[in-house]
Amino acid sequence: MKDIAKNIFTRFEHQSDACFVVACDCHDGDHSHEIYVSRDDSLITVTIGTTTTSDLRMSRFKKIWNLLVNGHIEVTSELIMTDEVAKNYAMALLDSVDRLNK
Ligand SMILES: [Zn+2]
Fold it and tell me: Which range of residues forms the domain containing residue 35?
């Protein structure tokens, strides 16, 4: 992966899509977020996903089964945004960080 900023790496970059990984500051790879940006015709979508090791929505039997078979429980969570929402999301982060740094 190509390092593009502190804790942000490019997994791949093509003409119509790209994938970035945002690493957790604690350096545990299980905490990282994957950001997938794609263009389909004129629609740009951004998907942010993460995999966690526990999910309260999963039934107790399924958790036990996954634990027995795989040795761990994995659940993927995704947030899908339009380009406008993704820009607003980025701006909200920038604004918050700037305000807290004052
Ligand atoms: Zn972490």
Answer: 2-101
CA dist 87 and 2 (Å) reads 23
- The amino acid occupying position 37 is V
Residues with Cβ–ion distance below 5 A, ligand 1: 24, 26, 28, 31
Task: State the distance from the centre of ligand 1 to the C-alpha of 5, rounded, in angstroms.
Answer: 18
Per-residue pLDDT of the chain (102 residues; tens, 9 = 90+): 888 888 899 999 998 999 999 988 888 887 888 999 998 888 888 999 887 665 666 677 777 787 788 887 777 777 888 888 888 889 888 988 888 888
pTM above 0.70, yes or no: no
- Beta strand extents in 17-73 (DSSP E only): 17-22, 33-40, 43-52
Task: Compute, in angstroms, the gap from residue 101 CA to the centroid of ligand 1.
Answer: 22
Q: What is the domain count for the chain?
A: 1
* DSSP class of 6: T
